[in-house]
Amino acid sequence: MRGSALLRMLESHMLRRALLVVLFAVPIGCRKAPELPPAVLTEPRGLDAEVLELVASKVEAVRAQPGDAIARASLGLAYEANGIWDLAATTFAQAAVLDEQQPLYRYHEALCLREAGETDTALATMKAAASRLENQAGVQQRLGQWLLELGEYDAALQCFERALARMPDHSDVLAGLAAVEVERQRWNEGLALAKRSLKVDPSNRSARYALGTALRGLGREDEARAQLAAGQGAKPRWIEEPLTREFLRYRVTTSGLTEDAGAAAAGGNHSRAAELYGQLVKRKPEDATLKNNLAASLIELARFDEAERVLKEALALDPGMFAVPLNLCDLYTRQNRLDQARPYGEQAVALGADVGRTHLTLARVLALQGDYPRAYAELERSVELDARNPQAFVALGETAVRLRRMSDARLWWRKVLELDPGHVPTRVNLALLSIQESDLEEAKRQLLECEKQAPEQPKVKALREELRKRGVL
Questions:
Q1: pLDDT exceeds 60 at position 6
Q2: How confident is the model at residue 18, as a pLDDT?
């Protein structure tokens, strides 16, 4: 009896302890976040006031919500976007502790560690993050590029292939794959991939460089030279990942905005370029170069009145800058105000006689005014100074036809195709010239190349019909 009572007493005591554990234990999902004070600037570091203001607001948000990983990552992006690499890396590491399920925080930590010079740690962190982000093409592309630079070609290839699986036929991923094959001296494979990349985006300079290297490896030196020149200085263009757009919003240093504006203009995003250059002009209203760049984007957007006003302001600030009259010439040419365009074109050539674009811009005005001999001379000077601009060779071919110099026209248009094999209008022109000279086999060859690139283009269809009528097809 006493034994049974003791047993019941023990069971009752154990039950109360179990209840206490259930009642007072903190569920795993409700555990208090670790105490992680935000990483803060202890001195201004020469940063713009806009950067300091942005960072201060993000630090306050973290202090208001110290356990919020998103707020912490937002502070990290503000640091990263403005080149504050050490604090950015620390902040992303904290965000990753607060939310272990988000590997993008470790990915951004790796980017910042590398910029801070901690390359070994950065690579290990990047590999760990990328292993959990196989569906993010931008992450795989970035790791692939890092591994390519380290000579780890097999691993790099796997990364680029994973990226391509997520984004089939993406020009920048194909360019990365081409670069890997070229480094492995697999020239034919690299050549094919570079051509695929350029078919998607003919302006891809990394693909141009890979193509040139592959051609050189195959012993096709003459073809390689033009492609290598066109791709000189190429840098990878990174594919977006989920935090990219927030990162770009926080990029507010003057140097960062300038870089982003230039990249936007080069990529054809003139609306974004105009927006960024507008912000920069407000900061530096006496900077003629920024005003000129803003005007160039406004011209592309057909905002001609604004562009004219800004260019006149830039000209008053720096009368010796050739780029300002160059853009004024372009502006008036687009509006068919040729009598106003020509003096600015002449002024641009006088100030920038050693710049190919000045001669090209003046030549366009001269050709529109019917002065073909002078236009031809200016175009020849343009390609002497810059043999990488296919538009100058296009214009030379067209002007040569006006002057009845057909053999020269053929020569110039072939130069276009050396620089840009996918330039369909030039292939159409060569085909029409070949028909005129009764070289129907050459016309057929050009047609077949056109149909690989743009079979539905009206001029390509018309060319096919013409050759069909002549019994060639």
A1: no
A2: 38
In this prediction, residue 304 carries a pLDDT of: 98
Between CA 397 and CA 258 the distance in angstroms is 36
Q: Say if 35-133 and 134-230 have the same CATH topology.
A: yes
Please check whether residue 280 is in contact with residue 260, taking contact to mean a CB–CB distance below 8 angstroms.
Answer: no
Taking CB atoms within 8 Å and a gap of at least 24, the contacts of 240-249 are 240/138, 241/104, 241/107, 241/133, 241/136, 241/138, 241/139, 242/104, 242/136, 243/73, 243/77, 243/104, 243/108, 244/138, 246/74, 246/77, 247/77, 247/80, 247/81, 248/81, 249/81
Q: How many angstroms separate the CA atoms of 386 and 326, rounded?
A: 16
**Rounded CA separation 38/53 (Å):** 16
- Taking CA atoms, 428 is separated from 203, 287, 305, 449, 452, in Å, by 20, 44, 36, 10, 13
> Six-digit token pair at 180?
């890997």
**pLDDT in the model for residue 2:** 44
DSSP code string of 290-339: HHHHHHHHHHHTT-HHHHHHHHHHHHHH-TT-THHHHHHHHHHHHTT-HH
Instruction: Give the class (CATH, top level) of 134-230.
Output: mainly alpha
| 363-401 per-position pLDDT tens digit | 999 999 999 999 999 999 999 999 989 999 999 999 999
pLDDT of residue 33: 58
DSSP string, 368-416: HTT-HHHHHHHHHHHHHH-TT-HHHHHHHHHHHHHTT-HHHHHHHHHHH
> Tell me: the pLDDT tens digits for 438-464?
999 999 999 999 998 889 999 999 999
Sign of CA dihedral 258, 259, 262, 264: negative
Question: Tokens for 330?
Answer: 């372009």
Rounded Cα distance between 378 and 238, Å, is 38
For the 253-321 domain, the top CATH level (class) is mainly alpha
In this predicted structure, the answer to whether residue 289 has a pLDDT above a threshold of 50 is yes
CATH placement of domain 35-133: 1.25.40.10
